[in-house]
């Protein structure tokens, strides 16, 4: 009996050991639309800033712009299996941030007019192959695949069964054409969401059914004026500025008003929403941080009031109190948000954004 089993193993060595992902057919995602791009003239399809800024902006900002935060691929398929092959550019690792959030993919399906989470694709390293979902009904559905929050993409392929069809999306959801543009820090970029769909701009995109452009730059949302000039070229429905964690008082006093003025020169009526610095849990113990955060928020309120006195009727401010809840249980490390923190900030920003978008 043992001899027979040994012979069978020699003759049929791959039976029972074939990776299901290997028997699928893969289609390059470049044939499908990408949403969330504010600029068409990027060096790589999955980047966030125009190529012209390479030598104009600070190197850290430029390097972070190659992270895919806010970008998503839209497609439709009748496959019973959906998989992905992808290669990231940096193979980033952090000790407080999940790999699925940093360099994984996140799949949503459009059901009954709402985007519903399907599953995430777990990364294995610089190159990965993963089945995201299987045993689907085989009915044609609309999908949205969020790209990595804190890494770039060299390539991306979507896998389906051999007999299935895949094509570009037909539903205009999230609605494209007049995106909400977010500018800010690591929190805006999505640190430390467990998966890409839980970054708060992405949550708001689904809530509002509106395309977003994520210009969050981890540690580097420092009111760089060339970024304001680039933002002003986007046909935005609203601008959200959430950069206080990355700026010091000198930068606030010298650059914040000018940053807004640059946007206003091309968008005199477009709503601009200013967001106070969230209230870190540890600031209630660290008295230096407590004083600094309050000083920043007070300064932002002064800048806001000065702008209103100049006649700007379409500028608004969101206060930090209650923005991520008051239980102090919404961060990973006292600063960066968990999924709960991101959900709360999205829920609190949603009515503000919805009201301003309806008024346009």
Question: What can be said about this structure in brief?
Answer:
This protein is α/β, with parallel strands linked by helices and 360 residues long. The protein is built from 9 helices and 15 strands.
Explain this structure to me?
- This protein is α/β, with parallel strands linked by helices.
- It has 2 domains: 20-168, Jelly Rolls (Sandwich); 175-359, 3-Layer(aba) Sandwich (Rossmann fold).
- Helices cover 29% and strands 24% of the residues.
- The strands form 3 sheets. Strands 2, 3, 5, 6, 8 and 10 form a 6-stranded antiparallel sheet that branches. It has a 5-stranded parallel sheet with strand order 12-11-13-14-15, sandwiched between helices. A 4-stranded antiparallel sheet has the order 1-9-4-7, with no helix packed on it.
- The radius of gyration is 22 Å and the shape is globular.
Which secondary structure elements does this structure contain, and how are they paired or packed?
Blueprint: H1 2-11, E1 25-28, E2 34-35, H2 59-64, E3 72-77, E4 82-88, H3 99-103, E5 105-111, E6 114-121, E7 127-133, E8 141-146, E9 153-160, E10 166-168, E11 175-184, H4 186-189, H5 200-208, E12 210-216, H6 225-231, E13 238-242, H7 249-266, E14 272-275, H8 287-309, E15 315-318, H9 339-359
Parallel strand pairs: 11-12, 11-13, 13-14, 14-15
Antiparallel strand pairs: 1-9, 2-3, 3-8, 3-10, 4-7, 4-9, 5-6, 5-8
């Amino acid at each position: 009996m043992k001899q027979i089993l040994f012979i069978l193993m020699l003759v049929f060595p791959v039976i029972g050991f074939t990776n299901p992902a290997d028997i699928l057919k893969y289609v390059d995602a470049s044939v499908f639309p990408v949403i969330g791009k504010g600029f068409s003239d990027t060096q790589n399809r999955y980047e966030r800033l125009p190529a012209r800024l390479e030598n104009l902006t600070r190197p850290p900002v430029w390097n972070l712009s190659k992270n895919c935060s806010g970008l998503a691929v839209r497609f439709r398929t009748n496959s019973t299996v959906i998989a992905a092959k992808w290669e990231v550019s940096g193979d980033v690792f952090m000790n407080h941030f999940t790999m699925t959030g940093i360099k994984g993919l996140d799949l949503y399906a459009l059901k009954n007019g709402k985007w519903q989470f399907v599953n995430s694709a777990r990364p294995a390293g610089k190159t990965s192959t993963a089945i995201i979902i299987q045993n689907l009904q085989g009915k044609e559905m609309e999908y949205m695949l969020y790209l990595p929050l804190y890494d770039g993409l060299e390539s991306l392929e979507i896998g389906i069964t051999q007999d299935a069809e895949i094509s570009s999306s037909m539903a205009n959801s999230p609605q494209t054409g007049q995106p909400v543009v977010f500018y800010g820090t690591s929190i805006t970029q999505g640190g430390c969401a467990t998966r890409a769909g839980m970054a708060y701009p992405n949550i708001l995109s689904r809530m509002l059914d509106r395309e977003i452009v994520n210009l969050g730059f981890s540690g580097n949302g420092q009111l760089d004026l060339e970024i304001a000039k680039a933002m002003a070229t986007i046909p935005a429905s609203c601008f959200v500025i959430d950069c206080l964690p990355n700026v010091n008082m000198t930068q606030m006093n010298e650059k914040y008003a000018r940053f807004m003025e640059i946007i206003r020169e091309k968008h005199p009526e477009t709503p601009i929403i200013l967001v106070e610095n969230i209230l870190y849990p540890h600031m209630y113990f660290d008295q230096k941080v407590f004083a600094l955060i309050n000083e920043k928020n007070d300064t932002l309120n002064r800048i806001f009031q000065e702008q209103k006195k100049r006649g700007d009727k379409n500028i608004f401010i969101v206060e930090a109190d209650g923005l991520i809840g008051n239980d102090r249980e919404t961060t990973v490390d006292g600063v960066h948000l968990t999924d709960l923190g991101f959900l709360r900030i999205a829920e609190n920003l949603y009515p503000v954004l919805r009201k301003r978008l309806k008024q346009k």
